[in-house]
Hints:
Largest sheet: 5 strands, parallel
Number of domains: 1
CATH superfamily: DsrEFH-like
Number of helices: 4
CATH class: Alpha Beta
Helix content: 25-40%
Order of helices and strands: EHEHEHEHE
Distance between the termini: 21 Å
Shape: globular
CATH architecture: 3-Layer(aba) Sandwich
Number of strands: 5
Radius of gyration: 13 Å
Strand content: 15-25%
Structural class: alpha/beta
Amino acid sequence: MATRLVIKITHAHNDPERAHIGVNVAAAALASGLEVDLFLAADGVELALPNATFALDEAPPVSELLDAVFAGAASITVCTPCATRRGLSEGDFRPGITLAGSAAFVAKVAQPDTTTLVY
């Protein structure tokens, strides 16, 4: 069984349900004791902004789930080129994120005992 979960989220407000599922899985994985690496790419970089929020019917607000993920021991990486294309830089994001590109994602998913999910 994998002890590490890498979750890549490529959606935010453009597909809130898909983004919510990815964040929810990350929060649940942390709560169950798994090591979690969250990689935010494309529109998913918006989830690392301090004011990221949206709600879905019959689901906790994504802001609450994001607070749990950021407060937990997750490693959170924002795709540098994706952020740059959106006019965002490190100072725009919540504290604790790392900016990196595809090579960082590949290095994370290539680790032993790792399962990767993409939303």
